[in-house]
Amino acid sequence: MSITVRYFASLREQLGASEASVSADGIRCVADVWQRAQPGRDLPPRVLAAVNHAHASLEDTVTDGDEVAFFPPVTGG
């Protein structure tokens, strides 16, 4: 039982990793995923999240087998 965690753009560079896998045991929401994947590290301000390719809030539910992505806000034209 696991959750795939992906990091994008400058966040990937800061963490030195593009992905991780964490145990789904005891995880209820997106914020729990961050804490499990990055223990002792605060979530950077304004970081966005997605669950299974859909934008999500830190309180959104996560279950076994989900993919959770964290990425900085992006702008473009």
Q: Name the CATH superfamily classification.
A: Beta-grasp domain
Q: What is the count of structural domains?
A: 1
Uncertain segments: none
Which shape, going by the Cα principal axes? globular
Q: What is the CATH architecture descriptor?
A: Roll
End-to-end CA span: 40 Å
Written account of the structure:
The protein is α+β, with helices and mostly antiparallel strands and 77 residues long. The protein has one domain: Beta-grasp domain (Ubiquitin-like (UB roll)), CATH 3.10.20.30. The protein is 19% helix and 30% strand. Strands 2-1-5-3-4 form a 5-stranded mixed beta sheet. The mean pLDDT is 94.
Describe what is shown at a glance.
This protein has 77 residues and is of the alpha+beta class. It has 2 helices and 5 strands. The protein has helices at residues 9-15, 30-37, and strands at 2-7, 19-23, 48-51, 54-56, 67-71.
Provide key terms for this protein.
5-stranded mixed β-sheet, 5 strands, single chain, alpha+beta
List the helices and strands and how they pair.
Blueprint: E1 2-7, H1 9-15, E2 19-23, H2 30-37, E3 48-51, E4 54-56, E5 67-71
Parallel strand pairs: 1-5
Antiparallel strand pairs: 1-2, 3-4, 3-5
Keywords: Nucleotide-binding
Protein name: Molybdopterin synthase sulfur carrier subunit
GO molecular function: nucleotide binding
